[in-house]
Specification:
Keywords: DNA recombination. The protein is mainly alpha-helical and 134 residues long. It has six helices and no strands. It has helices at 23-39, 55-68, 76-87, 91-98, 103-110, 116-133. The longest helix is centred in the C-terminal third of the chain and has 18 residues, at 116-133. The two termini are 28 Å apart.
Length: 134
């Protein structure tokens, strides 16, 4: 987990969402963090000047890269939707990654992206998992 890079953040992130990420991304973030520590004393990994990023900056940056890629109307939320679309065949994984309390929420929001049979299979799986977790 990326917060393991920053020991003092472990306790405050205990209740936050966590996701697995690939080694290449971890290596990049570790390098970024080390470079950043030379410039600032901040513990934020994703900030150039040590301050948290605001949502306007994030959306503007995502939009700019979308224009470079010739993709219309890209927002940070659209990236979340794309991420969900790629994972929808694994509803329990996506439920956890997106922080949904219930897999039904995930399927209601993103289920239209796949055929109805896949959604029905996911609903049956949800019932099985509910029984096993009780």
């Amino acid at each position: 987990m990326i917060y393991s890079l920053i020991p003092s953040l472990k306790s405050c992130l205990r209740n936050q969402l966590t996701s697995s990420i690939d080694k290449q991304t971890i290596d990049y973030l570790e390098e970024w963090y080390e470079d950043q520590r030379l410039m600032t004393r901040s513990e934020f990994v994703l900030s150039q000047d040590g301050a948290p990023l605001n949502s306007t900056y994030i959306n503007d940056t995502v939009h700019d890269y979308g224009e470079l890629a010739k993709v219309p109307t890209v927002t940070a939320h659209a990236l979340r939707h794309s991420h969900a679309s790629l994972l929808i065949s694994h509803p329990l994984v996506i439920r956890d990654r997106l922080g949904h309390k219930d897999v039904r929420t995930t399927l209601e929001i993103y289920g239209h992206l796949y055929p109805k049979s896949d959604i029905e299979a996911s609903k049956r799986l949800e019932g099985l998992v509910t029984v096993l977790s009780e």
